[in-house]
Design goal:
5 strands
């Protein structure tokens, strides 16, 4: 089993826009079963939207406009990356959080490519693994995790390959404590963390007031006019989250569905 430590950079921005954010760099390192690095992948990607990098992104990543102008598009780079991944199998992707694979899936769809390969890939969220290892509640950056482990960060933060190499250092340091039963595959999520937190807090509030949690009450008193509920997929997802959260709370009485 190989471990592919993946990191991506995307052209996020500080201003609101209906145009999509896009992956502008993919970096990955391949570790063998002995956790030795055996290969690496690195490529810039020329975006379709906002092909001229703004000052925020240039300052954050250090990527030069000239380099982006000369880069291949997403279709070419993702094909090269897929080929590189398939050179040695089996493997599991290792990411710091869930955003990296999500952005690859979203860009694959934006370019009208088949996303089935990425939907079926197993990945392990090392950020969650680190949080479990340290028994903490708050997320942290790769650089902060390295410092916490007494490892001096190297390379340039917010460059994909350097971040992948630094993530690999965290991976090696806590490998023996990781539970790979926690691996997963990408799943579309239609609600965000804030919306799910509203549902969670609503259930807890009802239980603390000795009120039997009811989905209709959550919708009426906690979600209406606060969360857009026009997408039935989001509504169904939040309802399922409500059911799961209700199941772990102390029972007030018969739960009314």
């Amino acid at each position: 089993m190989d471990y592919i430590i993946l990191d991506i950079e995307f052209n996020g921005r500080k201003f609101a826009s209906d145009l999509p954010m896009e992956v502008i760099e993919i970096g990955a390192v391949r570790l063998n079963a002995s956790l030795e690095q055996t290969d690496e992948f690195s490529s810039l990607i020329k975006p379709v939207y906002f092909s001229k990098l703004n000052s925020f992104i240039k300052k954050k990543t250090g990527i030069e406009q000239e380099a982006i102008d000369q880069a291949n598009g997403f279709q070419k780079v993702i094909a090269d990356f897929s080929h590189w991944l398939r050179e040695r199998e089996p493997f599991i992707l290792v990411t710091w959080g869930g955003e990296d694979l999500k952005r690859i899936v979203f860009d694959t769809r934006m370019h009208k490519l088949d996303d089935s390969y990425w939907m079926a890939v197993d990945y392990f969220d090392l950020l969650k693994g680190f949080v479990r290892y340290k028994n903490i509640k708050n997320d942290m950056s790769v650089e902060a995790a390295l410092l916490d482990l007494g490892i001096t960060p190297t390379g340039s933060a917010h460059r994909a390959l350097d971040d992948a190499i630094m993530t690999a250092e965290v991976f090696r340091a806590i490998f023996a404590s990781l539970d790979f039963e926690q691996k997963q595959q990408f799943k579309d999520v239609y609600s965000n963390a804030k919306e799910r937190r509203i549902v969670k807090n609503a259930v807890r509030a009802m239980c603390s007031q000795q009120v039997v949690p009811q989905w209709e009450l959550v919708v009426e008193h906690y979600l209406t006019n606060k969360v857009p509920l026009t997408d039935p997929r989001k509504l169904s997802e939040l309802h399922n989250y409500f059911i799961a959260e209700t199941a772990v709370q102390p029972k007030v009485g018969p739960v009314v569905k």
